[in-house]
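Section 3.1: Structural characterization of target chains.
Under the original work plan, the team committed to producing a structural model for every single-chain target entering the pipeline before any wet-lab resources were allocated. The record below documents one such target. The sequence was received from the expression subgroup and is listed exactly as submitted; it comprises 218 residues.
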Amino acid sequence: SSVPPGGGAPAALITAVSTPPAQASTFTPGGTLVDRDVGVQVGNPEASASRQFDNSNVLFDKDQYFKFGQAAPWIEPDSTEYPKTMPFVMSQQRYDSLKKYGSRVMAGMGAIQALKDQVASGTTSGIADASDGQYALRPMGLLANNFLASENTGATNELYLARWYINEMYLAINDMKAASSKDAATASYKSAIKAANSYLTMLNRQITSKVGDKLPYL
């Protein structure tokens, strides 16, 4: 498997902000009992601390954290080190999905990148909520569905991972909006960009010459 073994289940009253990682022999948000630390920043200290422990405040609730109870590392652009493998999905499915969602996804990426100006000027309270369609986070999820899963594979660990990066963008946008200082907003912006590039790197591994042009990084 390309991501840590495990599963997921809610511990509803615990939040990431107020508690340290849960200790060994505890449930992941998706319901699996594991003998290791569980927490929204376990595995990546730059992951958003505002994620609820039960994954109730994200766009796609079934993601890497839901299943494994831990954060994922950022992926450097064009790296193939993580995840180790990618699922097989027919090139026609990927081609059709890229044609349908590619431009919307890149427009959303542009909207996220443009938040740099509001962060720099200290006007982050005026940032549109992460649910705003300009960020195209739902189309990002649809593109990932068609790139990383099929009727034959069902939901894959790689799809859960891509959703985790989308959710981190979602959380980081709202973290910027709610930031109490310019430094906090800047840190959230940097995390959003790292999450975006991680997502794009995963998708680019699935874009061959038959599928289309690789997506540009932020």
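Residues 5-19 have pLDDT under 50 and may be disordered.
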